[in-house]
Amino acid sequence: MGRNNKRRGGGRGGGPRRNKPNEYRSDFLEKSDMDNERFAAYYKAQNIVSNEEWEPLLDALRRPLPTTFRVAGSRQTAQTLNRLIQDTYVPMLSDASFEGEPIPPPVQIPWYPDGLAWQFNVPKKVLRKSPEFKKFHNFLVFETDVGNISRQEAVSMIPPLFLDVLPHHKVMDMCAAPGSKTAQLLEALHANDTATETSIPSGLLLANDSDQKRTHMLIHQSARLPSPALMVTNLDASNYPVIRVPASLRQGEVAPARLKKKKMEQLLFDRILCDVPCSGDGTMRKNLGIWKSWQPMDGNGLHSLQVRILQRGMKMLKEDGRIVYSTCSLNPVENEAVVAEALKLCPGFEIVDVSDRFPNLVRRPGLTAWRPTGDKTVSNTFASFAEYQASLPEGQAAASKMTEGHWPPPDAESLNLPRCMRIYPHLQDTGGFFVAVLEKTKKPEKQPVTAPSTKGKREMEESVDDEVPESKKPRLTDDSTASVELAAPQGASSETTTTVPDASAPGPESAQGAVKAAEAEDENIVADLDKTPEPSKVSSSDFKENPYTFLPSDHTILTNCMSRLSLLPTFPSSNVLVRNPEGDAVRSLTSAGTKILSKQEAGKGLDAQFRILGEGLQVVLPYVDPETVMAADVGVLRVLLKAYHPTCAAFEEPFQTKVAERGPGSHIIRIPAGVHRDVTLSHDVLLPIWKSSVSVTLMIDKKAKSAMSLRLFGADITVAGRAAQQQKEAGGSGSAAVNDGTPVTELEAETQAVEVGTVDDAMDVVEAEEAAGPEGVSV
Length: 779
Ligand SMILES: C[S@@+](CC[C@H](N)C(=O)[O-])C[C@H]1O[C@@H](n2cnc3c(N)ncnc32)[C@H](O)[C@@H]1O
What we know:
Layout: H1 37-46, H2 51-62, E1 67-71, H3 75-94, E2 97-98, E3 101-102, E4 107-108, E5 117-120, H4 124-129, H5 131-145, E6 149-151, H6 158-163, E7 170-173, H7 180-189, E8 204-208, H8 212-222, E9 230-233, E10 244-246, E11 264-266, E12 269-275, H9 289-293, H10 297-315, E13 317-327, H11 336-345, E14 349-351, E15 364-365, H12 385-391, E16 421-423, H13 425-428, E17 433-440, E18 548-550, H14 556-564, E19 577-579, E20 589-592, E21 597-599, E22 610-612, H15 617-620, E23 630-631, H16 634-642, H17 655-661, E24 665-671, E25 674-676, E26 679-681, E27 685-691, E28 696-698, H18 702-713, H19 719-729, H20 746-758
Parallel strand pairs: 7-8, 7-12, 8-9, 12-13, 23-24
Antiparallel strand pairs: 1-5, 1-6, 2-3, 4-5, 9-20, 10-11, 13-17, 14-17, 15-16, 16-17, 18-19, 21-22, 24-27, 25-26, 27-28
Helix pairs in contact: 3-20, 10-11, 18-20
This protein binds S-adenosylmethionine.
S-adenosylmethionine is lined by residues 8, 10, 13-14, 156, 175-181, 209-211, 214, 236-238, 275, 277, 460, 462.
């Protein structure tokens, strides 16, 4: 998988990008340029909509896409923020006008559960100039920064909804970057979280993408919803390794650190998302370059990879499991044809009838007939593969890159293809999208052996930009010229082995069990546990990640941390990972769990030089001795926000004495829910602090401090915020959050805990970036 990394990336559909980023900015593209004869000829031939609907569809495709966003986070925090939008911003924006014209306020997307997704359609100049929308825009930018809001295209929110993820599910996101759907899946796993404590779901989410840079974007994105249950890998999904986990782990059983003698079985998933790379023509409303560049060979070329990814996903699914296949393409060759071929290759699956789900989502049934073309000018389309082959000049049929699988199968009706969903832009003012929900109904009698034809298969070439599909996609050559050589099939050699720690069995502890997996093309090839792959057998020499290693639960540093930080014996110390080059090779795994502890340089000379990270607090909290948590109030918080290192004397009593009495090191304060002078908190707020010999520091990052300050006090009273304000007044442009004058309501005060909670955590992952051997490990 490694060899593609440098070229991978993708347009909106994760397909490769063709245009220079700014070549077709909307400012430069006239409506009259939004035309493409090939596009029109091809899609008219496919009958994707009726003749009467064709013009409305084109009109919609030419209009700018509305801005859409989703309120993110756990159920409790999301609902609090949603009430703030409903009760404060919508009324404020309902009165907004621009140059004498009323501007419509944001509205809830009608099909999204609990009204947590919104849409508004306001020109950029209004956002810049209308004071009300400017305020709202600031709010969105700010909340997006701290992870409470996800700017996401409406149609992109659909696939995770149909997966019905529950906290105990083992979930796989096969093509996950940049990660907007991964975030939705994670939120579903964490549905039972409270505002102050992160549950450790018994399920897990394995998010994967073959593009290394995009994988890192995904990790960055997912840090906004820190989850101990997330693991990220960087592998080719069409050839994803078998993951072996101990067969005998039962609910609540702790996985031993070394599993040499355990019987292993393949980890299968309850839910899998295959949001595959595609030509992305459903995104034309924002990726205007597609108007000019669209041609059908892009979709033709992606078909085989899409089938292989879906087929691999189907093989990794549990019985009764569910898999969602989706693209942002309108092309049946990338949609129904892929689903039909995968169903043929993997018996025992069916397309689920989900017509009763999300009834407010207007959609059209999947197609049962379509007419692929073999040349980019769409000079002709063909009802069947045979018809197509017959049309080729003598001798060219053999060289054709098209396969039978591009065409509708003879049994299209019996496959229930109309149960697939087509979302068209003119129906609800969205992008175009395709979704199919498949369920595994029974174990196939024998594993399918027929791989999709590799004829015509060639490597993906993608750039890192997510915005515009580009030219170097695995497009089939125009068969009429057949001039481009296709690359050899990619994939790890069958000898390749990769180990990744895995979370497998049910139960909070075992979910992070010390399990390893193997990467192999053949399901029977599994790496020896505990055996570091020989360098010559490792396919990807450019994988630069440090390995993850489990820390022995009796390691001195860990036991010191536990006593120093007052962690209860229930703390899952056998599940703590460090990340350093001394550990066993854990290749292709780029992220696991959440950081919870970090070395504190200022703590040198102390028994344990570690502190609980702000982002880890919510996960660690259930294991902290409650007696050691210090009671505080909003006044204490004000002091902590106003100065970086206030002395103990700066606090009012009784906190002043309490904190002075504490030893140096990491501590936690709790500000209880209720009315604190002019601020009302709807739930407790818990924060990590560091006490040195004379001063106290609030250990959350600057943005989280500014966020909290704005919510609670209506102004950014932090050092950085005041500096930014001063700079702004002096004519500069401060970057910290600035008080926009929006009134602080009780709801705003409530939601502050979201940022506090936005701190990531890892369930039990102590991550050491800088450390060396066991004694020197900095966890
Ligand atoms: C449509 S995008 C995924 C968008 C993502 N699900 C989201 O919601 O943010 C498709 C992704 O597939 C990735 N990709 C392309 N070929 C792949 C392969 N063979 N295996 C895994 N990922 C692949 C691309 O890097 C791209 O990030």
